Amino acid sequence: MSDVHIRVSQLTMAYGSRVIQRDLDFDIMKGDIFVIMGGSGCGKSTLLKHMLGLLSPASGDILFNGESLVSASAQQRDRMRQRWGITYQSGGLFSAMTLAENIALPLQLYTQYSAADRDDIIAYKLALVGLAGYQDFYPSEISGGMRKRAALARAIALEPEILFFDEPSAGLDPISSSLLDELIVQLQQSTGATVVMVTHELPSIFAIANNSVYLDAKTKTMIAYGDPRELRDHSDQAVVRQFLAREASAAVEEPL
Amino acid sequence: MEQRPPGFELTVQDRQTAVLTISGDWIQGNTHSDFQTFKDDLCCIHADKLVVDGAELGRWDSVLMAFLLQCYNQCRDDNIEFSQRGLPANVVQLLEVASTVPAHEQKAPEAEPWYGFLDPGRLYGEVRDATLGTLEFVGELSVALARLTVGRANTRLSDFRDFCYQAGPNAFAIISLTSLLVGMILAYLGAVQLQQFGAGIYVADLVVIGMLREMGVLMAAVVMAGRTGAAYAAQLGTMQTNEEIDAITTMGVSPMEFLIVPRVLALVVMMPLLTLYANVLGIVGGGIVAGGMGITPLMYIAQGEDAVSLAHLTVGLIKSVVFGLLIAVAGCRSGINSGRDSAAVGQAATEAVVTAIVYLIVADAAINIVFQQLEI
């Protein structure tokens, strides 16, 4: 039986008095590829920001290996974050730095590699995401898909235990998107990292996820938790089945 | 856990096959012999086949992967068959992922000699482009303003009102401080000289004329260049980054009419008002210093009143309109021509302020010369 890596317990998220989601309760196991899904505006990205410690919850806690993120001091939080790799929706690469400098930054900050080793490692990380030889390009000089992969190279620079993705395939064509999915799976298998991603791209959900949670915008809580393939066929919630089967219906009255 | 130093050894198994034995802990903090050693050794052997043996490998991280990837690429370049035995399964898998996409052939950019910026051809090109760009901008702005006068421009009154508020009332505090102090500085400067001739009372004339004609408007303009000009450049630059300007253009609305006209007009309308305000505060500042030198407020006011003339006031106000226009044009032009990343927005803001201040000084000198010749 695998161990619990991340535990979200009784989490309620709110902006001021406006509750986004309440009573979220789920575990993410070591080595999972876990998807946070739900309709637009249900609070998927907000949940991710809470898990990254960028926002504080109204109540509840998030535990990484049993260690609380919410009550951690700033120092502890930084230490925890060193073991994470994060890819933001639009990449989050520093536009004034080349790809090599972008990847070198975490290496310089947190490791003792020699300068020569660092260069070799940068070359290797870029090769892993299929961008070998692009060291001296600026983010503005490469395509959107390449930017996503470059951001992934930066995220895996420190060999993280957890990889977070915010909409990894948003704005990518189907081929690039499935290549990225494949890459995520390969990296997950060879590094054993836990992957947490926010997405509503059904093909990638079914292709790579082995566990998921569905956040509902109407009831403001999670209404399904489990393997997405299982949920598509057997969920007791009609909304979840429709979401996963990509059906529009009058039964789903979500504000657009 | 005891650490073993990382190492590798290249041995010849038979005539064609070389074996690379990797041993020890390949993790950060441990130094290993560099790739060049391996490359040189491999060169001497002339093998057709390289087998990497990982049986003695201890712990490992990206250092090992980076090294193996280099070995792999070297073998591929030299047409040597690459194989492995005893490497951990995930090392093999990572190596496979890393080597699927061939490296991008990089064209090394031509190194520019340090004196490159002195190249007359390039200098001429830059000056010509900048001049043409400004002329084009001014031309488009004129067309947009002309369309506005006949009521056919897509300019929103509410935008104009907002920009007026930002450029006017919001700037009061900083303008108050600077013009009060400039008035005082002007008074000190004159007082020392004038008192030597027993003409201390003429400090009032000096401050009044100085503020009205020159310092009031110039200081207000410099502050507004740093405050509003830079803000215009940053706003428009960020809109460029967010593709908002593309959105406006594709909606069939001219960004010139929609974004730039209200900004330019707001500054042109607000600058004379700010200048009047700055003039009053500057004269008050001068009065404070004069009071300290024994000139009573009544004397200061009486003497100052004589110095005030419509001509002085008008010169200042004409300048303020010109300066307002120049600051807005410099800010908007830098912003709308900004690149699409965060560094470019910063650059646009800097360019806006620098250009505006250069414009201000040149225009001020030009206007002064003209008025001197016209004896106004």
UniProtKB/TrEMBL annotation, chain A:
Looking at the record, the residues that make up the ABC transporter domain are 6-244
**What keywords were assigned to this record?**
ATP-binding, Nucleotide-binding, Transport
Q: Does the keyword Nucleotide-binding apply?
A: yes
The organism's superkingdom is given as: Bacteria
Query: What InterPro entries does the record point to?
Result: AAA+_ATPase, ABC_transporter-like_ATP-bd, ABC_transporter-like_CS, P-loop_NTPase
Molecular functions (GO terms): ATP binding; ATP hydrolysis activity
Q: What is this protein called?
A: ATP-binding cassette domain-containing protein
Q: What organism does the UniProt record list as the source?
A: Pseudohalioglobus sediminis
From TrEMBL, chain B:
Classify the source by domain of life.
Answer: Bacteria
Q: Which protein is depicted?
A: MlaB-like STAS domain-containing protein
- Report if keyword Zinc is assigned: no
Please give one Pfam family short name: MlaE
Q: What Gene3D superfamilies does the entry give? A: STAS domain (3.30.750.24)
Is Transmembrane helix there in the keyword field?
yes
Q: Which UniProt keywords apply?
A: Membrane, Transmembrane, Transmembrane helix
UniProt GO cellular component terms: ATP-binding cassette (ABC) transporter complex
Organism of derivation? Pseudohalioglobus sediminis
- Tell me which residues make up the MlaB-like STAS domain: 35-98
Q: Give a GO molecular function annotation for the protein.
A: phospholipid transporter activity
Q: Which residue spans traverse the membrane?
A: 171-189, 201-225, 264-290, 310-331, 352-371
